[in-house]
Amino acid sequence: MKVLKFGGTSVGSPERIKHVASLITRERRNVVVLSAMSGTTNSLVEIAEYLYKGNVPGAQETLNALHAKYMAVIEQLLGTMQGKAKAASAIGRVFSLLRSYFSETLTEAGEKEILAQGELMSTALMQCYLEEQGINSVLLPALDYMRTLQSGEPDMQHINARLRRMIDLEPDADIFLTQGYICRNDHGGIDNLKRGGSDYTASIIGAVLEADEIQIWTDIDGMHNNDPRFVEGTKPVSSLHFEEAAELAYFGAKILHPSCVLPAKLHNIPVRLLNTLEPEAPGTVIFNTTPDRKLKAIAAKDNITAIKIKSGRMLLAYGFLHKVFETFENHRTSIDMIATSEVGVSVSVDDDSRLAAIVDDLKHFGTVTVDRDMVIICVVGDLEWESCHFQSQVLAALADIPVRMISYGGSNYNISVLVRREDKIRALKALSDKLF
User: Fold this and answer.
1) pLDDT value at position 391?
2) Residues 304-313: pLDDT tens digits?
3) Mean pLDDT throughout 2-24?
């Protein structure tokens, strides 16, 4: 059994839905995870924002436009009056539920129920289309098995027991269809796995079912060795270690949600990244082994702020770093990169919403300087420290580019450098020219 996840753009139009249906019906008894149709979740977020502000007419206008969009999709997707009527009824129930929130004060629980409707609608449409095509597709409602613990982590024992029982009850099913992103929390309320959580859903399902493979289908043919928006001639990376994929995902490779890899990694299940528009392309496979020692790919993370704390008192001062890191912890701000010396420490953050307060507190320990509009460029590969030439290649490629910070040694799979925003594209191209 395989788990196949399709993102919002893959099911973003009637033509795309039909194309995905042709892909998922090539093999039997796989689990298919769908995101909401592209644009839907953004519209639902907008509706919730209007309701929080008490602007019911604004919410109604957005909802009416979304409803019209779905009715147009139904008309183009389905070919029979019976199929259109069934789909319109399913979609109509969703919009009736959404309109019920217009007469009451919106709560956080209500907002989460609103946001869950996108995935429920995309799977309803796919189910109606598959039934019309004579495919024995079984809908597995995610809210009937996907649950999180009080910590927010998936309740793997509950998911395993419920999902396996639901599948075992359908021995003749050709396809199992389910929603990504949505779940129930430990209180039984509707919740979600955060934005991008459909990847996480697929990984969790693959782990509990011990799937042969997890496939993440998008509109890109795998994870590229550099950002194709800025660098010409990039190529898909054929294979990656889970650690390499996690580094790339965290530092800007948007094709894969960073949290997706953990359940698959722990259960040793390969994850394959595939292109819906080029289904025969091999894509990128991610697993727990590294087939060859080499540099694989480059990614960049924008909107970084560097903070340097310099103190003459730091020399041999016990507890200095603890006080610095405690300051960031107190302000609930995570650190990306760290560099230390005898007289100071530099760190980078991607969230500057509490920067003023952080800087104010850090001034108790030393002189603080801040550099904004920075970019972390991450070079990923099998970078064991004994292999001398990898580090020198990266630095040689950036010989003409000012580098604010360098981070290496925290991982065997990543060398990170911090550069100015205006040097980003030049650095990406220089690294590609030198390394690939």
Assistant:
1) 78
2) 999 999 886 6
3) 95
Determine the pLDDT at residue 152: 86
Supply φ then ψ for residue 107, to 5 degrees.
-110, 170
**Phi and psi at residue 283, in whole multiples of 5°?**
70, -155
CA distances from 37 to 9, 101, 111, 259, 294 (A): 7, 22, 18, 22, 38
Alpha carbons 393 and 29: distance in angstroms, whole number? 47
Report yes or no: 239 and 299 within 8 Å, Cβ to Cβ: no
In contact, 77 and 18? CB cutoff 8 Å: yes
Q: Which of 295, 253, 270 is nearest to 382 (CA)?
A: 295
> Which pLDDT tens digit goes with each residue over 158-211?
999 999 999 999 999 999 999 999 999 999 999 998 756 799 999 999 999 999
Question: What CA–CA distances, in Å, run from 43 to 31, 62, 115, 239, 324?
Answer: 27, 7, 9, 36, 41
State yes or no: pLDDT of 316 exceeds 60. no
Q: Which pLDDT tens digit goes with each residue over 278-295?
A: 999 989 999 887 666 778
CA dihedral 375, 381, 385, 390 (to 10 degrees): -80
Q: What is the DSSP string of 292-345?
A: S-SEEEEEEEEEEEEEEEE-GGGTT-TTHHHHHHHHHHHTT-----EEE-SSEE
CA atoms within 13 A on the CB side of 5: 29
321/13 Cα distance (integer angstroms): 53
* Alpha-carbon span 191 to 197, nearest angstrom: 11
